[in-house]
Amino acid sequence: MCIFCKIVNGEIPNQTVLEDENFLAFNDINPARKVHVLVIPKVHYDSFDVIPPKIMAGMTEFIHKVVSKVGIKESGYRLITNIGSDGGQEVPHLHFHILGGEPVGKLVR
Ligand code: 5GP
Ligand code: ZN
Predict the structure, then answer these.
(1) Mean pLDDT of 52-79
(2) Domain annotation covers residue 106
């Protein structure tokens, strides 16, 4: 079972930000910005690449709620999902990173 499925099952503790029947938002264990929340579907999907559009619609609505709850709706934020090897995905369970609480900077190399 993947590490995020273990979090969903309560086998690994997490700092929950928001939860409903289908989705869970929790603080990243190694925050890259002042606010760094991960949002996952409770059902395992390997990545955004295979997410059914209906699940994605629910995810979008849930992410909006998380953003309001952590108080970064007005100041803005970055929403990222890494996909596969070149995408830099480490945990093979679809997750969105919400980064904010401070200017997150440009995407440059
Ligand atoms: P990825 O590189 O797959 O997009 O991001 C995985 C993220 O999961 C990383 O930011 C990492 O810090 C976070 N992470 C990995 N293991 C755990 C864990 O056990 N608990 C929490 N809260 N975050 C984790
Ligand atoms: Zn999983």
Answers:
(1) 98
(2) no
Q: Is the whole model's pTM more than 0.95, yes or no?
A: yes
- Rounded to whole angstroms, the Cα distance separating 84 from 41 reads 17
R_g of the chain computed on alpha carbons: 13
Write down the catalytic residue from 36, 64, 93, 95: 95
- Number of structural domains, the chain? 1
Query: What residues flank ligand 1, with Cβ below 6 Å?
Result: 3, 12, 14, 26-30, 38, 82, 88-91
ipTM above 0.95, yes or no: yes
Longest Cα–Cα distance in the chain: 39
**Count of positions (residues) in the chain:** 109
Q: Is residue 68 part of a domain?
A: yes
Q: CATH no. for residue 42?
A: 3.30.428.10
